[in-house]
Amino acid sequence: MEVKTFFAQSADGRIVPHAEVAVYRQGEESLASDLEDGHGQPLKNPFRAGMQGQIQFAAPNGHYTIEVVSQDARQRLSTQFFDQAAVASASGTQSLTQALDQRLIALDSVDTLKTWPGNRVSDSYRVVCRRFYRDLPYELNIELQRCTAMDAPERAGEMDWLPTDDPRHQSFHVFTLWGEDGAAYIQPSRDINLLKVGFRADYHMSRGTKDKGTDESRWFQKTIDKTRFRTKYLPDLADGAGLYLGSTRIELCSGTRIVGDGPQANSRLISDYPATSFRDGLLWLRESHVVDAWAEGRPTGDIDDAFSHDIELRGLTFEATDFASAAVTLVNVRNVLYSDNHHVRCGGIKFFHELELNRRYSLGHEDDPETDNAVIAGFHPQTPDDLNQNVRISHLSGSAGRYSSQPGDSKLACAVRLNFVRDFSISQVSMEYCNISGWGGSARPGKGGELRWMRRLRDGYISDVHCTRSNGAIYFNNAHNVKVFGCSAQAVSDTAFDFEGCTYCLFDGIHSVDAGNFGISVFYATLGNVIKNFHARQTSQAANLRARYATERFRPGLGKTLFRRLAGFEDPDFEQDITLDTGSFVYEGEGFGLVAVDSWTDVTYRNVSHQDVMMDLRAHSNAREQTLVDNRFTFTKAADPGDVLVAFGPNNAGYACWKGGKIESRVDQPAGVVPLLAQARAYAGVSIVDIEGSRIEVPGAESAIVICDARRSGRSPAHAFRLNRNLIMPGSRIVNLDLNERSGGAAVQLEALHNRNLDFASVDIVTPNRNDTLNYAGLRFGLKATRPQD
């Protein structure tokens, strides 16, 4: 017959000596017969437990109920005995010895198990402990197995991860703990519940006790180091508790997988580490093999070996006790899953490249358009095989708690930062004081911004991201093929949505309310970029955001600019372009808002509505081709005399057109206001400007449309204008303000057909005399016109 051993315990885990024990056949009220003690001798039923609470007996094959009665309690336990040579189970037929290896001893806690003498539990016996620590509420049912081969009296009371043979992984480590006499117990499972391997998770700051609990950073670090490619599970912690990591930055490694119960649960990691600098985080990945591989630039051999791999952080809450720019920062990594995470007083996740950290990549040398900083550092000039890649980020929530680490400093938080990354997706992110940004190289000319150089932030998808009170919302330097859908920004200090030196990127369905600088912007070189289905609104609050966030940065727009293309430069190898298609710009502050385009780019601008927003597309010196179709401008307040509401025109021997659309004012404007001005001023060649099918309804304005060859050097031939089928207010006029002819050059080349006022009277184009009130030199354009005159 099989011999089983049990122990009589009270509810708090204390041994109960000499308890009365009665054994019944299951389902019967009569006492079982034919019991034997551990030596095979007949045993009376009932009988008493030993001095140490030991209950040991054998019984014939069958199911039994054991009743244990002490002075304080009555307990019942069901069990099964075997008296045959082979046993059938769910896993097949086993020998009796194998079956007995599966027998269990149940205890209240691991704390209790540690106090037991090792000889009380035979080798390979399995022990189930309801809790790990007797003083904590976590109900865990921890299964441990006695392992006499690992007994070590010198390690009494310790825990560790020890290597063991495992066919699935060469460096498999098993959780091992030793009792007070050095008796060893192991937990051989592959996946790891952190509470079952000795983490107390007893941080209780939320209770107002100021008790940070146990600093578990060293054990957490060792657990990560010894359990690569195994899932570490942090369950929903009771009573607002958390796992406290002290003031130490945690070092990750390839194969780190930490999973919690989700952002609505309380799988919380708390850190005092001051991760305020740009390249820092509460958790950090920069493995030594990566540092060594890139020390001299691009490594030889398989480039994939110069990266870390397989990071999964999911379902967790990251909490900084003060402020952290990011919860997690990773250097040279591939295959990353970061999802369903909540953030308290910290940002989200950042990615960097080792060539940045070892300072081989630098912007410190002199500007040189014939070199690419990234190639000098060691990146491949043509193949993007040396980037971080395969990054999946989704469902991030929380807040950094404030705009910057200290008022006025530049230590800011990011929801996501992507430096030198390809093949990524980001979705469903909503984090206060945190933006999403990326870097694929410098967009500045002479620093790698020329369009012939590779863009090293590539092939990404971003959707459903919402940024509030942050330093901008979504912006990139030198990105290629990045698509952004359905994202929003509110009360951000800089540009809400920004492309800098980007190629073939898309903003679709973006929404911005109050940006301290620009609602949408495009800096430096631009090729194939499209902005569509957008809305941007600036209210009176936008101008106050710098003061609100205690920052002196981002001054130029003062919260007035809805769209700006600026800092352009000539790239002789490429025709640059930008397209805005279907959207709206609304200004609700003092004066007027602005849409402005500087130099060196072709502009396609169609089906965009504007409310109290002026436009200036003339650029400073080098505006390129402009195609404006079916745009609508509505003004609800009066401008000042000499203000130009909409101005466009190329500064090269190219083409510009204004087709369809409407400019209207719902209030009377001063006579000197110019609703639409088209100019050309390229010093060589002929520019052709078309104005066709437009409708100008601006009551009070004396000159509805003004055209101008704006050169003052008397050039020949003159620029050409074609005005056809335009409608203007009765009493208004179309004016040719030809400075070139007045300077001794040729007269404007002009075609004007079927232009009429709203009474359907024909309208001719007039040239004002020198006494006319329309004075080009006195006109106000762009940002100057958006402000009331002093």
Q: Keywords, please?
A:
six-stranded mixed sheet; mainly beta; 790 residues
Description:
By secondary structure, this protein is mainly beta. Helices cover about 5% and strands about 40% of the residues. It contains 9 helices and 59 strands. Strand 7 and strand 8 form a beta hairpin. It is elongated, with a radius of gyration of 38 Å. About 0% of the residues have low confidence.
Briefly say what this structure is:
By secondary structure, the protein is mainly beta. Helices cover 6% and strands 42% of the residues.
Tally the beta strands.
59
Distance between the termini: 106 Å
Number of helices: 9
Shape: elongated
Oligomer: single chain
The overall pLDDT, averaged over residues, is: 91
Tell me roughly what share of residues is in helical segments: under 10%
Secondary-structure content class = mainly beta
What are the SSEs and their pairings?
Blueprint lengths: L1 E6 L12 E6 L21 E2 L5 E6 L2 E8 L4 E8 L4 E4 L2 E4 H5 L3 E6 H6 L10 E6 L10 E5 L12 E5 L9 E6 L5 E4 L4 E2 L23 H10 L3 E5 L8 E2 L5 E2 L4 E5 L7 E4 L11 E3 L2 H6 L14 E7 L2 E8 L3 E4 L1 E14 L2 E4 L1 H4 L15 H5 L10 E12 L13 E7 L1 E12 L1 E6 L17 E12 L5 E4 L1 E7 L2 E5 L4 E4 L5 E3 L2 E5 L2 E6 L5 E11 L5 H4 L12 E6 L10 E12 L4 E5 L4 E10 L1 E4 L9 E4 L2 E4 L8 E5 L6 E5 L2 E4 L8 E7 L7 E5 L2 E3 L5 E7 L10 E5 L2 E2 L4 E4 L2 H4 L6 E5 L2 E2 L7 E2 L15 H5 L4
Parallel strand pairs: 9-10, 15-16, 16-19, 17-20, 18-21, 19-22, 20-23, 21-24, 22-25, 23-25, 24-26, 25-27, 26-28, 27-29, 28-30, 29-31, 30-32, 31-33, 31-34, 32-35, 33-36, 34-37, 35-38, 36-39, 37-39, 38-40, 39-41, 40-42, 41-43, 42-44, 43-45, 43-46, 44-47, 45-48, 46-49, 47-50, 48-51, 49-52, 50-53, 51-54, ...
Antiparallel strand pairs: 1-4, 2-3, 2-5, 5-6, 7-8, 10-11, 11-14, 12-13, 13-14
